[in-house]
Design a protein that fits this description.
Helix content: 55-70%
Order of helices and strands: HHHHHHHHHHHHHHHHHHEEHHHHH
Strand content: under 5%
Distance between the termini: 8 Å
Structural class: mainly alpha
Number of helices: 23
Number of strands: 2
Radius of gyration: 22 Å
Length: 484
C-alpha cells in the first residue's frame, strides 16, 4: 500500500473540494442572508487541513495501484462528508449538532436525500443552495471529476474510476483514455443540468428554484428548497412533467447518452437490454400504482391519478425521492410497492442508486437458465446480454453483490430495530439509506430528525455503503486486501 501517494491524492482532492465553498459564499453575498462567515470558515478549515496533508508528500508522484484506488475512494467520501458538514455546523440558521450536520452532509453527497431539517422555506438561501450543490457534486462523483484533471497532476486515474463507477462491468469506457471518459461524463452531466434548469424555469419556477432543483434532479438526489418538495409547485403540472423527463434521463446509463450523441441516433437506447427492462419496470409499476389510486378514490380524475402515480413511481424507482403528495399516506399497497421497486433502482453508469437494473436483469436471466437446466440437464445454457454471452465472472460478481447486499441490509435493519425503531420505520429507513433513496415510511416519512443519534450514525454508514456499492467498502475490511 502506497500510503504517501494516498495521502498526497487525498490532500489534492480536498483542496479541490474546499473551493466548492465559494459558490454558496457568493449566494450568501447576493441574498445578504448572514451566512457568509460560516462558508468562509468551512473553506479556510478545509483548505488549510488539505494543504497540511499534501505538503509533506507533494513529491510522491507514483502510479496508483488498484488497492490504492479503493482506499482513496473510501477515505475521500468519508472526508468529504466530514468537511462537508462544516457549513451546517458553523451556520447560525439552522443550529444543528455535529451528528445532524454530518447526516445532512453525507445524505447530500451520496444523493440519498434524507434530511434532518424542517422549515426549509425560511432557511437562508445559501444553506438551501449548498444542500443542492452537495447532491450535484456527489451525483457524478467528485472523484470522477478529479480523474478528468489527474493527468495534469501526474496521477493515473483508472484505479479510482473502477472504485467509483457503479455497476458490474466497471472497465467499460466511453473513450480510450480514462481522463477523456471522465470528461465526457461531466459534459453530459453539465448539459443535462443546464437543460433541466431551463425547463424548470420555463415551467414556472423562479431562477433560484430552477437551478437548485436541476441540481437534485440530475443527480437523482431529491433535496428540495421547500418542505413540500415539488408539491410546492402542485399548481403547475408542467413542473412534474419536467421532473419526470429528467429523472428518467439521469437514471439512464450515461454511456447510452454518449453513444446517442456521438452517432446522432437514439436507436442505441432501444437496443440496450438494461434500458428496455428499466422502462418496462417503470411503465408497469406506474400504471398499476395509478390505477390503484384511481380505484381507491384517492384521486377523482384519472388524469390526476396518472400524473401523480407516474411521478411518484419514477421518483422512488429511480431513487430520486421527490414527492408531490405525502405518498406514505396513500393506501399502503402503493408506498410498499414503490419502496420495493427502489431496490431495483436506476441503470448502471447513471447517477441513481439501488442494486441497478442490469443486476436485476442478470439475476432474472440466470434464474431462467437454471430452470431450463432443470428441464434439460444436458443442455448448455448461457446467459446473454445484447445477444452476447456474458463471462462467468460477471454472473458470479452479480450474485456475490446480491448476497452481500442482502446480508448488509439485514444487519442494518436489525441494528436500527435495536435502537427502538418499529419494523416499518426500520425497514424503510434501511431501504432509503442503502438504496440512496431518501424518504421513508413511519417515523421517517417527513424527516429523520426524530430518530436517535445512534440510528443516524448507522444510517450514515448505510448511505456510504450504498453510494460505493458495498464491495468498494467491504473489500478494504478483508484481511487479504492488506496482505502484500
Amino acid at each position: 500500500m502506497q500510503f504517501a501517494v494516498i495521502q498526497r491524492i487525498l490532500g489534492l482532492l480536498l483542496i479541490l473540494f474546499s473551493f466548492t465553498q465559494v459558490p454558496p459564499m457568493l449566494v450568501s453575498l447576493l441574498y445578504m442572508d448572514g451566512e457568509l462567515v460560516a462558508f468562509f470558515y468551512a473553506f479556510a478549515a478545509t483548505l488549510i487541513i488539505a494543504i497540511m496533508l499534501w505538503l509533506p508528500v507533494k513529491n510522491q508522484k507514483k502510479e496508483l495501484r488498484l488497492r490504492d484506488g479503493f482506499i482513496i475512494a473510501a477515505l475521500f467520501w468519508t472526508a468529504l462528508g466530514l468537511f462537508g458538514a462544516l457549513p451546517f455546523l458553523f451556520a447560525t440558521d439552522p443550529k444543528v449538532t455535529y451528528t445532524n450536520a454530518l447526516f445532512e452532509s453525507i445524505s447530500g453527497l451520496t444523493t440519498t436525500g434524507s434530511t434532518i431539517l424542517s422549515g426549509l422555506d425560511s432557511l437562508p438561501k445559501s444553506i438551501l443552495y449548498y444542500r443542492q450543490q452537495l447532491q450535484w457534486l456527489g451525483g457524478m462523483g467528485i472523484i470522477v471529476l478529479a480523474v478528468a484533471i489527474m493527468p495534469m497532476l501526474g496521477i493515473g486515474g483508472m484505479q479510482l474510476y473502477r472504485a467509483e463507477t457503479p455497476g458490474p462491468m466497471k472497465d467499460n469506457r466511453l473513450t480510450p483514455r480514462i481522463n477523456s471518459t471522465a470528461s465526457a461524463l461531466w459534459y453530459i452531466y453539465l448539459t443535462l443540468t443546464i437543460a433541466c434548469a431551463t425547463a424548470y424555469w420555463l415551467a414556472g419556477m423562479d431562477m433560484f428554484d430552477a437551478i437548485a432543483h436541476s441540481f437534485s434532479t440530475v443527480s437523482i438526489g431529491g433535496f428540495s428548497t421547500h418542505d413540500a418538495s415539488l408539491g410546492y409547485f402542485e399548481h403547475r403540472p408542467s413542473v412534474e412533467i419536467v421532473a419526470i423527463v429528467f429523472m428518467l434521463l439521469s437514471a439512464t446509463n450515461f454511456a447510452l447518452h454518449f453513444a446517442a450523441w456521438r452517432s446522432r441516433n437514439i436507436a442505441h437506447y432501444f437496443a440496450d437490454g438494461e434500458f428496455k427492462t428499466y422502462l418496462t419496470i417503470l411503465a408497469v409499476v406506474g400504471v398499476v400504482a395509478s390505477l390503484y389510486l384511481y380505484y381507491m378514490d384517492v384521486y377523482v380524475y384519472l388524469n390526476r391519478a396518472f400524473l401523480h402515480g407516474i411521478f411518484e413511481t419514477v421518483s422512488i424507482a429511480t431513487t430520486t425521492g421527490f414527492t408531490t403528495k405525502h405518498y406514505q399516506d396513500w393506501p399502503s399497497f402503493v408506498p410498499v410497492l414503490l419502496i420495493i421497486t427502489s431496490f431495483v433502482g436506476a441503470c448502471a453508469g447513471s447517477t441513481g442508486g439501488g442494486m441497478k437494473t442490469i443486476r436485476f436483469l442478470l439475476i432474472i436471466k440466470q434464474g431462467a437458465s437454471e430452470v431450463i437446466r432443470m428441464v434439460h440437464p444436458n443442455a448448455v445454457v448461457t446467459v446473454k446480454l445484447g445477444g452476447k454471452p456474458l463471462p462467468d465472472h460477471v454472473i458470479s460478481a452479480v450474485w456475490g453483490f446480491f448476497s452481500a447486499y442482502v446480508a448488509t441490509f439485514s444487519i442494518i435493519l436489525l441494528l436500527l430495530m435495536l435502537t427502538g425503531l418499529d419494523q416499518v420505520t426500520a425497514f424503510s429507513a434501511t431501504a432509503a439509506a442503502i438504496n440512496n433513496l431518501g424518504p421513508g415510511l413511519g417515523a421517517v416519512s417527513a424527516n429523520y430528525a426524530g430518530i436517535t443519534d445512534t440510528a443516524k450514525w448507522i444510517l450514515i454508514f448505510a448511505m456510504l455503503f450504498g453510494r460505493l456499492e458495498l464491495f468498494s467498502l467491504l473489500v478494504i475490511l478483508t484481511p487479504s486486501f492488506w496482505r502484500r
